[in-house]
Amino acid sequence: MAEPRFAFSAGSLDAAALQQTLTDPSCGGYVAFEGWVRNFNEGRAVHRLEYEAFEALALREGERIVAEACTRFGVVNARCVHRIGDLALGELAVWVGVAAPHRDEAFRACRWIIDEVKHRVPIWKKEHYVDGDSGWVNCERCAAAAPGAVEPHDHSHAHDHSHAHDHSPPATPDYSRQMALREVGPLGQARLRESSVAVIGAGGLGVPVLQYLAGAGLGRLVVIDGDRLEASNLHRQTWFALADCGRPKADLAAARIRALNPEVQIEAHGLRLDAGNAAQLLAGCDLIIDCSDNFATKFLLNDLAHELSVPVLLASVHQFEGQLQVVDPARGSACLRCLWPQATRDGIVGNCTEAGVLGPVPGILGSLQALEALKILLDLPGRLGDEVLLVNLLETGMKRVRAKRAQGCEGGPCGRAAMALHDTRQALAKISSGSGAGLELDFDDLAQAISAGYSVIDIRAPDECAADPLPGFVRRIPMEEMLAGRNLPAEGRYLLVCSRGVRSRSTCEALRERGIHAAHSLRGGVQGRTWPAPRTTYL
User: Fold this and answer.
1) pLDDT single digits (tens) 94-136
2) Are 212 and 164 in the same domain?
3) 501 and 412 inside one domain
4) Looking at residues 479-502, what average pLDDT do you find?
5) pLDDT tens by residue, 384-410
6) For residue 454, what are the domain limits?
7) Is 538 part of a structural domain of the chain?
8) CA 49 from chain center: how many Å?
9) Is residue 355 a contact partner of residue 319, using CB atoms and an 8 Å limit?
């Protein structure tokens, strides 16, 4: 039976005998580290040491560390043995040995193993001092409440003690917990480090996506968000603080990512993605993650998946529900237009400003997006294919539903949606100059306004609405209520409609004076126009 790569010993260690276990004729470099019990620490005279370990966990973690070192540095063999129990002065406490073809990789692997063992393996050391006192030291997994704070810690052993710890931040991030997964390992981690991902939106969905991808050690993250933080965002965008309100979300997210993982290359763009800038901003990305809150951006990204040959991971949230979908041209998946041939407000996709949302709901959907993104980048099993993941968090249910590809979708976005694509891009072009665009806008179909990111509001009197009803996705707020001060979030984009466009224009002027700058009027109004019946698609 082969010797274990990591082991504990209750008795003395024989360094010469341990060295013999690494002998290999292919190796020209042999390096060993020996840690001995010394008679002082931090100015106090030490009489003896006592080591304890959570052996079941420690042995597994130690084996992983040595195996990782062999893979990472290309060494032939390596071992580590650590003492437990009571040790006298001058006794050998830990031994690490490495055999490799050359000295360089042997030196580096040996240093890495002992550093990782001290950092990752649950081993605790108690010093017994000459003056009769004692104390536990080097509890590497203890965490302070704040930098520099000293708190009591539970180390899961039956000893009462208090002691100061070095809580200085590590020099580099530690990915050991995910690298311990056989599906990830060093090769998977290297793959993540080489990946480039764009995240569109740094809100309720985007915050958990960015947190987990940055924590996972992605090489490059591109953040695109043209909004500024509002107080109403904080119940679901908990990465930010009240003091951050008014600042660009993209800049805030970039600062948080740098604090979390300085190894990640971060590009922040405080602007809205549109048909004109998308190709440039998304260049070089291996995956695009949609965390936006409007149809225009979702459909644009859907179409760009085909144009750029890059998979797009889409998510939507409505109240207590959400859905996840991957549009991947290389895998022949259904596109967004296969499911939503018309950009109506029906279905799961909604606007949390109007419909409301509990904070954890986008948090959970964003976490699922991050998980699915890692599955895509690592090519793990179980990733979404021709399916939509439906999530009902009120009932705590989740199911996959087959997403049937529409006829004419081969080779690009649905052929039947070519006109809709043109209309969406035309609508985006109208608003590409920002919220300060003209007071009046033209739309041949109110669904185009919805797809362009507007909330359509009918300000006519109730009897007018009853006599000439508009599609069901249009909100009804009489002009009197609007002028009386009915509150609308300042960050929204609105298209007001009336019979001839006169009342809607004057109402928009009043709203703009209140700071709602993205209020627009439908030119000419709705009188005499016919609207196609809204189409609802059920999954």
Assistant:
1) 999 999 999 989 999 999 999 999 888 888 888 999 998 888 7
2) no
3) no
4) 80
5) 877 788 888 888 888 888 777 666 665
6) 435-522
7) no
8) 44
9) yes
Same domain, 141 and 205: no
Closest CA to 296 of 336, 267, 253, 356: 336
Structural domains in the chain (count): 3
Question: Could you tell me the CATH number of the domain that includes residue 477?
Answer: 3.40.250.10
The verdict on residue 113 lying in a domain is yes
pLDDT at 479 over 50: yes
* pLDDT, the chain, mean: 80
- Kindly state whether residues 206 and 125 are assigned to the same domain: no
Residue 30: in which H helix or E strand, if any? strand 29-36
Reported confidence tier of residue 142, pLDDT bands at 50, 70, 90: very low
Secondary structure class of 313 (helix, strand, coil):
strand
Q: What is the CATH number of the domain that holds 392?
A: 3.40.50.720
Question: Looking at the structure, do residues 221 and 165 belong to the same domain, yes or no?
Answer: no
Q: What's the gap between Cα 452 and its chain centre?
A: 26
Cβ pair 76, 44 in contact under 8 A: no
Q: What does residue 18 show for φ and ψ, rounded to 5 degrees?
A: -65, -40
Per-residue tokens: 445: 């179909």
Q: Of the candidates 446, 457, 426, 443, which has an alpha carbon nearest to the alpha carbon of residue 519?
A: 457
d(CA 321, CA 356): 11
Write the DSSP assignment of 127-194 as a string of letters.
Answer: EEETTS-EEEE--TT---SSTT-------SSS---------PPPSS---HHHHTSTTTHHHHHHHHHT
DSSP character string of 39-90: SEETTEEEEEEEEEE-HHHHHHHHHHHHHHHHHHHT-SEEEEEEE-EEEETT
